[in-house]
Amino acid sequence: MYLAWTTVANRADAERLAADVVTRQLAVCVQIDGPIISYYRWQNHTERAEEQRLCFKCLPSHLPALEKHVLSIHPYDTPEWVVIAAERVAEKYLSWAGASSSTPPL
What we know:
Layout: E1 2-8, H1 11-23, E2 29-42, E3 45-58, H2 63-73, E4 82-85, H3 91-100
Antiparallel strand pairs: 1-3, 1-4, 2-3
């Protein structure tokens, strides 16, 4: 299983993105945290932003399609996209994830 993160500026965008990828069966679950406060450098300035963080859970076969889709509809010009492989996943959760997924998207 993979975990991927991104952030968006508001709750409406977070809800829309989460519902979209679960409906398309690109992710088996998306959790929304927020608001969070992000500090970062953008165009030579230190910025502070209140954001919503999304954590996507997906199977390896779905990761390429999930990434392509999220990045194509993301509202930011330069979205955060960080992916890690889960070292351990409970067998029951992994079985549920497999049963909740369709065949890999094109």
